[in-house]
């Protein structure tokens, strides 16, 4: 009896190792064994039901909505609070990704990053339409300020990243935004 239990435990450990190996880099034999198990699952109703449920979950996880190629962006959408002194540069773009509008606008703002971030923070906070956070990170003696806005009435988000330019009298700015599909948004003021 002990020999039987020992043999059973060894087989269980070996088969568990084989299953775990299938998740890592699989060789051709392992792939063939997994594919054979999937084909035989059709003969077993319980496994067939589990595989069908898993496929349905994967279909539900795929977000609906159009995806478009990036297009030039000449101005920010009206719902984004204006950034004082922001001078856009070429290379700005917007696009749709899985039904969500996304965009990025590069430019320059007169002033040091900390002063610009503080000024933008105060002007946006006064509108009471966005939750505002300001973060500063210094890497290799270069300060990067990030002002993040989240609309209180929807899932719209804006992020303004500021880095000093040479000489420190201006800030290189990258403004990115995301917005859910237009039909889900409340009207902009």
Write a concise keyword list for the protein shown above:
189 residues, 31% strand
SSE order and pairing:
Blueprint: H1 2-23, H2 28-41, H3 45-61, E1 71-72, E2 86-88, E3 93-97, E4 100-110, H4 113-125, E5 130-139, E6 142-151, E7 157-164, E8 170-179
Antiparallel strand pairs: 1-3, 2-4, 3-4, 4-8, 5-6, 6-7, 7-8
Range of strand content: 25-35%
Percentage of residues assigned to helices: 25-40%
User: Structural class, from secondary structure content?
Assistant: alpha+beta
Order of helices and strands: HHHEEEEHEEEE
* Assembly of the depicted chains: single chain
Query: Helical region count?
Result: 4
Rg from Cα: 27 Å
- Please tell me the overall pLDDT: 77
Shape: elongated
Give a description of the structure.
The protein is α+β, with helices and mostly antiparallel strands. It has four helices and eight strands. Strand 6 (142-151) and strand 7 form a beta hairpin. The chain is elongated and about 80 Å long.
